[in-house]
Amino acid sequence: MARRNALTLAAATAALTLAAAAPAQAAPISIGLSTKTSDSDGFAYLSATLSFTDGGRGIDLTGKVTDRCPADSHGAYAIITVHLSGGGFRTWTPQDANGCGGGTPFDHDVNFNVHVKDVSFLLQERDNGTVVRSTSRVVTNG
Engineering a disulfide at 72: which of 20, 40, 42, 86 sits with its beta carbon 3.0 to 4.6 angstroms away? Predict the structure, then answer.
């Protein structure tokens, strides 16, 4: 009986040690960016959810970039850049340039096999290629 209790205690201790060593997943981060001002009718909007995964070496990113109307010939353009340790990066450029649509969704679940330093979001409202308004946010991993 004492031997069985010792084995059970050893197994429980090993399980707790493994659980403590496993990297914790960070809670998802909500991102909301808008170029709306008090005097603008139309504007660009970005909504996203970001999680750092794979022990900080990956991301799970979902969201949408939307051109909010009236139809004013402006479009919504996002530049999302993942900065990696060692100087590498990965960029996505979702856009809603048609005006007054339902927006453009994006979904990226990527393991980079190297530490992710941060993810930057730049949202621009453009009129015929010229930036009218912009806003940004950087989310640091760690």
Answer: 42
Which residue do the tokens 């139309």 mark? 42
Assigned CATH class of 25-140: mainly beta
Other C-beta atoms lying within 10 Å of the C-beta of residue 67: 25
E-strand stretches of the chain: 29-34, 43-53, 58-68, 74-84, 89-92, 95-96, 104-111, 116-127, 130-140
DSSP symbol at 60: E
pTM (2 d.p.): 0.79
Find the mean pLDDT for residues 22-45: 82
Over 90: is that where the pLDDT of 140 sits? yes
Amino acid at 45: Y
Domain boundaries, the chain: 25-140
